[in-house]
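Hey, weird one. I pasted the Arginine deiminase-related protein sequence into the form twice and got a warning about non-standard characters only the second time. First submission, copied straight from the form history:
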Amino acid sequence: MVPSSEFSTQAPSSVVMVRPHHFTVNTETAADNRFQLSNENAGDLSPLAYAEITRAAALLREQGIVVHLFESEGSNTPDSVFPNNWFSTHSGGYVAIYPMKALSRRRERRSDIIDMLKSRYRVQEVIDYSGLELDGLFLEGTGSMVLDHIDRVAYAVRSERTDPIAVERFCTQFSFEPILFSAKDPSGFDIYHTNVLMCVATDFAMIGLDMITDSGRRREIVNRFERAGRRVIGLTNAQIEKFAGNAIELLGGNGRILALSTTALLALTAEQIGIIGESARILPLAIPTIELAGGSVRCTIAGVHLTPRD
């Protein structure tokens, strides 16, 4: 039976999403995102992407999730549908803004989203790391880091988009313990974002263990979760390629849910689905067009870990 709770440290009950009006696959980010597919000769994908986010937001709201849905009407931010990369929110009233590698992605930062957070939630301080871009140091939010809000651990795969110095700076400021490691796909390419490799929920963690190159680090991560009483669900390389690791736990009106794509759900085994179901209800969201850009459900959702104003 899925537990119900009015509060969850790990699973937010409010999220920010961005609905794209001019969606396209970002050619600038293709070099290091092996999950990204070409959309040549596919025609205008914008209506499909717009409809997918519209439907996903509606399904989340049906589950009791507060969805702050913003519009991306410009044509120069092809990855704007993935807001979790440029900002994150944290208990105690803190917001972080991140340094992005691609020039096109830096244009995604929006003052109206930050202003909404300040007006609807108790925000004490906004910490802006975007100046690190001038030093060539990048850290793309909760794409670069998968945060364990319960045990205060930041898991991060080293890549061109995730610099260890930036990770250390964030962890010092926000009181997380950094656990950095290397991970590669079967072709030997670095995993570009940690959140395609793993998902941390309240009672379980889903991880592409075979992609972690250091066996000692792999055992350390597994032991860390098991000592905390979490079930570790090992994901195969094929499941990772289907975005099975790119999920997010949220708190709905009737308890915790795990939001992931229909692509990801079809890749899971019955046993894995059963383990998840002991802790959270699975909510599949169909976003196949969005997934062409190399990200899935987790990437489209920026969780709000802030206290609402009265």
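That's the output from the first submission. The warning seems to come from a hidden character in my clipboard, not from the data itself. Residues 1-5 have pLDDT under 50 and may be disordered.
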